């Protein structure tokens, strides 16, 4: 029985190499491919499989074992047509989860229509994250769940002190669903809290929200 996920990374530029290394450190089996052998050699000792090849070629993807992947990331955004060909090839290999990096917002709809399940614009997403961090250094994005939702960690706002979670009404006022709380007198987060929990100075929350909800949270 397979216990370890296998994720493919197509393209080993700065972004792809970073993704591949991070996945490998997280105990994920990584199959990586790049047309440039120098890029392949940078990760060959860190991932399960690193191979030189052209990911626009179906036979090369199949021979490298990408058909056995649970998910694949197309990490090269140099040419739209290459990303499209890669998506079409991966669909022929019955890959359902395909994340694609792109530089252009206008390409997003095209990539989704041809079969991408998620399209990311790293420069844009990092710009939003850095902007939010600078606007309020205490709010941290822990994880982007998809193109819409993020998991964030944030401290209790002074205007919430003495109020219950239900009185603050995070969902309606901030578009945030609270999933964990770390009380000021505790060192650990807990998911076992009640709507009647009274917020105090030093409390920290973890919640699921949209970019718009995060902006609401940052407002003074």
Task: Tell me briefly what this model is.
This protein is α/β, with parallel strands linked by helices and 220 residues long.
Describe this structure in words.
It is a single chain. The protein has helices at 14-25, 37-43, 58-64, 80-92, 105-113, 122-135, 165-168, 170-174, 211-218, and strands at residues 6-10, 29-34, 49-52, 71-74, 98-101, 118-120, 140-144, 149-155, 176-182, 204-210. It is α/β, with parallel strands linked by helices and 220 residues long. The protein has two domains: 6-120, NAD(P)-binding Rossmann-like Domain (Rossmann fold, 3-Layer(aba) Sandwich); 128-218, 2-Layer Sandwich (Alpha-Beta Plaits). The chain has a six-stranded parallel beta sheet, sandwiched between helices. Strands 7-8-10-9 form a four-stranded antiparallel beta sheet. The longest helix has 14 residues, at 122-135.
């Amino acid at each position: 029985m397979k216990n370890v996920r296998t994720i493919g990374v197509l393209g080993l530029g700065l972004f792809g190499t970073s993704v591949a290394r991070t996945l490998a450190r997280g105990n994920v089996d990584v199959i990586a491919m790049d047309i440039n052998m120098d890029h392949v050699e940078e990760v060959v000792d860190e991932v399960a499989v690193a191979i030189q090849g052209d990911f626009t070629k179906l036979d090369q993807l199949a021979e490298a074992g990408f058909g056995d992947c649970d998910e694949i990331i197309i990490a090269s955004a140099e040419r739209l047509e290459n990303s499209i060909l890669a998506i079409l090839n991966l669909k022929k290999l019955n890959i359902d989860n395909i994340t694609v990096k792109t530089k252009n917002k206008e390409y997003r709809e095209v990539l989704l229509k041809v079969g991408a399940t998620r399209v990311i614009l790293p420069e844009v997403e990092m710009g939003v994250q850095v902007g939010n961090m600078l606007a309020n250094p205490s709010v941290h994005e822990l994880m982007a769940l998809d193109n819409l939702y993020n998991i964030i960690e944030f401290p209790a706002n002074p205007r919430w002190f003495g109020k219950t979670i239900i009185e603050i009404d995070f969902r309606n006022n901030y578009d945030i669903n609270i999933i964990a709380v770390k009380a000021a007198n505790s060192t650990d987060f807990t998911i076992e809290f009640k709507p009647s929990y009274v917020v105090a100075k030093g409390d920290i929350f973890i919640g699921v929200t949209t970019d718009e909800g995060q902006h609401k949270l940052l407002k003074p």
